[in-house]
Write a structure and sequence with these properties.
The chain is α/β, with parallel strands linked by helices. The protein folds into 2 domains: 142 residues, Alpha-Beta Complex (Aspartate Aminotransferase, domain 1), CATH 3.90.1150; 246 residues, Type I PLP-dependent aspartate aminotransferase-like (Major domain) (Aspartate Aminotransferase, domain 2, 3-Layer(aba) Sandwich). Helix 9 links the parallel strand 5 and strand 6. The protein is globular, with a radius of gyration of 22 Å. The two termini are 30 Å apart.
């Protein structure tokens, strides 16, 4: 690709022409405006687009249900009894784990609670939970309720690391310093992998190491990270992680969720957990024993039967990720966000007073395929104008427009057209 960006339509089209992943856009349904033109869809960090193979995957399970009834658990094309195993290999690759360290089940916050029941085991001295600010509200609700259930005042137990005065993102050294400061009072570090508001990708390896050094555990909400950035959960020694499938993983509204449990915990059958029969050893599950014998690995945290229809959607999407590979996706994502950053900076350079402040880190290693634009009091008006012009983005209170150019289906020309409309605002 050309080495130096240019703010021209012809340049953007040249980038698209040379894009080795350009064919994948055709494998997704792009929403259409009333005039029949496709929307410019920059909201994959909220809900990813539908792979065209989804209908076929769901229809296969509907057909087996229709023809086989309950026998579909063992005799279907994709036997439901083992369905979660069909998702393990691809999921493990995406989060940097071993196959038995991941499981697909439930929904995101349900899995977060299940993990905290196992890995937030407070004592009168060690009970505090460290989170980032601003954390996604559901994470805040979850950690606060876990503290409360265990008899602690969330206002005392929950510690937030906030950006320095005048800054929008967190410095790693401040996070590590706070972990060291809390010391033997700290029970759990529970961070988002990529912050939903700023798009900052935290240094999860360093955070995990610091937590373990003071005797705490480390877990992560990877809702905005999985399928977006390179992850190495096993090597980083993270204790647990959870993620959803409906954002970058394109697996439908309310789609199924994933969980990671490091093998040092998953292979220890004494690790405390809530028990359910789908987490029981598969070989003895139908013996209907009263004693719970958990599977080894993350599968031992399952509770109920697999969610076959949401999992079918997820399987359709994961097979695309398996085909492309996260490293190729990251390469294009870096180029898309860099081009968008260039366009926005070029717009600012043409004005006496810059209008658009990007609060997402400039370092590509510290962000995914999202740029968060800090606006002034006219921000909502600008967001409305973008929507009316056929651009689907995301508004977050109090004053941020989030733009996510996703490498599987977004084009460089769309980035250029976004910049043109933004400049007219």
């Amino acid at each position: 690709m050309p080495k130096k960006f240019q703010n021209t339509l012809s340049f953007a089209r040249q980038l698209d022409k040379e894009d080795p992943l350009k064919s994948y856009r055709k494998r997704f349904h792009i929403p259409l405006q009333k005039n029949g033109k496709p929307f410019i869809y920059f909201c994959g960090n909220s809900l990813g687009l539908q792979p065209k193979t989804v209908r076929k995957y769901i229809e296969q399970e509907l057909l087996d249900w229709e023809k086989l009834g309950v026998e579909g658990h063992f005799d279907g094309k994709n036997p439901w009894y083992y369905y979660h195993h069909f998702l393990e290999k691809s999921s493990a690759k995406l989060v940097g784990a071993k196959k038995n360290e991941v499981v697909i089940m439930n929904s995101l916050t349900v899995n977060l609670h299940l993990m905290m029941i196992s890995f937030y085991r407070p004592t009168p001295q060690r009970y505090k939970i460290l989170i980032e600010s601003p954390a996604f509200p559901s994470d805040q609700y979850a950690v606060a309720s876990q503290a409360q259930i265990n008899g602690f005042d969330p206002k005392d137990a929950i510690i937030e690391v906030k950006p320095r005065e005048g800054e929008e993102t967190l410095r790693t050294e401040d996070i590590l310093a706070k972990i060291e400061e809390l010391g033997n009072e700290l029970a759990l570090v529970m961070f988002g992998g990529v912050n939903y508001y700023t798009g900052q990708f935290f240094e999860l390896d360093k955070i995990t190491e610091a937590a373990h050094k003071v005797g705490a555990l480390a877990g992560f909400d990877l809702a905005h990270a999985t399928g977006n950035v390179l992850l190495k959960l096993h090597d980083w020694q993270a204790d647990f992680a959870v993620w959803c499938s409906y954002k970058y993983l394109n697996s439908g509204p309310g789609g199924t969720s994933g969980a990671f449990v490091h093998e040092k915990h998953g292979n220890n059958l004494a690790t405390p957990r809530l028990a359910g029969w789908w987490g029981n050893d598969e070989k003895t599950r139908f013996e209907m024993q009263s004693e719970f014998i958990p599977q080894k690995g993350a599968g031992g945290w399952q509770l109920s039967n697999a969610q076959i229809l949401p999992m079918a959607v997820h399987l359709a999407s994961l097979e695309i990720f398996e085909e492309v590979g996260i490293r190729k996706l990251r390469k294009k994502a870096d180029q898309l966000t860099a081009f968008m950053e260039f366009i926005i900076n070029d717009l600012n350079a043409k004005k006496e007073t810059p209008s658009f402040q990007i609060i997402t880190p400039k370092d590509p290693k510290k962000r995914g395929c999202q740029l968060s634009i800090l606006t002034d009091e006219t921000g909502k008006h600008l967001f409305k104008k973008l929507t009316e012009a056929g651009i689907i983005a995301d508004w977050r209170e109090p004053n941020v427009i989030r733009i996510a150019p996703v490498p599987l289906y977004n084009k460089f020309e769309e980035v250029w057209r976004f910049g043109k409309i933004l400049g007219q605002g």
